[in-house]
Amino acid sequence: MASVTMKEMLDAGVHFGHQTQRWNPKMKNYVYTDRGGIHIIDLQKTMVRAQKAADFVKEVAASGGRLIFVGTKKQAIEPIVEAAARCGQYHVTKRWLGGMLTNFETIKSSIDHMKKIDKMKEAGELTYLTKKERARIEKEYGKLSEFLSGIRDMKTMPSAMFVVDLPKEHIAVAEAKRLGIPVVAIADTNSDPETIEYPIPGNDDAIRSIKLFTNMIADSFIEGAKVWEQRLRTSSDKQSDATEKSAKTEEKEMAAPKKRGAPAPARGGKAQADKKAEPAIVKVTKARKLVAAGTADEVEIQAELENPEAAPDSTEEASE
């Protein structure tokens, strides 16, 4: 599990805060003491908060979420770019453009324009333009790439945000809060930890301190991403097994012989079938009597029709 040790934080200078006159009173609970006019951060509390933040990031990745790293100060650019590239997530290291999240449709149109210029370059279409037009497009592309290269593949809102230097990135934090996106951040003594969900008390100016926490967040995300991949693999295997089972069942049903012919007789068997057939036999016999009586006079035929029971059977007719 990704975590940081006390020795690593001491070596990175995480415990050094800002000057006492520049502090935010809301950070009082995380300040251990002050020395030489500088606040010293309580690293015991930093360890607890850092672990909570790491666990949260791991949960986000394990559920298939995305993360965006934000840090536009000079010391934060290199650590953030490396960490974001290592875990394959988004990052912003230039200036946070207003509406980058809350007005993402407009930002997305600029990203699409940047991708369009990329395709023009690959196809060699810029060579057919004039020198002035080519220079204008190159300048436009450079500006777009500088601001949007870290989020060029972002299609939906990230599930979480990691920030270096809360006061400096207040616009990004405000947009995340408006959209309900949880924020993890390094909170120095001049920060307001109540504005975010997962503050990590520590030095946000030293490059070693920034690199320590950005790497911890990246490692946590990678661990969670492995869990997510395993879940997808398991789900895919189950679905494949179910499909294969269904195909085999269907194949067996197709291979089974289909019996054709008259349906089986109902309860009662042969005797009941014979009983149902008797009226037909009687009718045929009567028909035969009428035909045999064709030589009789009209009075006898009429009497037989009116009273069939009194009519002589076939043996008497034969004897006559």
Write the layout of secondary structure elements.
Elements: H1 6-12, E1 16-19, E2 31-35, E3 38-41, H2 43-62, E4 67-70, H3 74-87, E5 90-92, H4 104-123, H5 131-148, E6 160-164, H6 170-179, E7 183-187, E8 198-201, H7 207-255, H8 269-292, H9 298-306, H10 314-319
Parallel strand pairs: 4-5, 4-6, 6-7, 7-8
Antiparallel strand pairs: 1-3, 2-3
Helix pairs in contact: 1-7, 2-7, 3-7, 4-5
Word description of this protein:
Helix content is 55%, strand content 11%. The chain has ten helices and eight strands. The termini are far apart. The strands form two sheets. A five-stranded parallel sheet has the order 5-4-6-7-8, with helices on both faces. The protein is an alpha/beta fold. The longest helix is centred in the C-terminal third of the chain and has 49 residues, at 207-255.
Characteristic terms for this protein:
single chain, 320 residues, alpha/beta, three-stranded antiparallel beta sheet, 8 strands, disordered C terminus
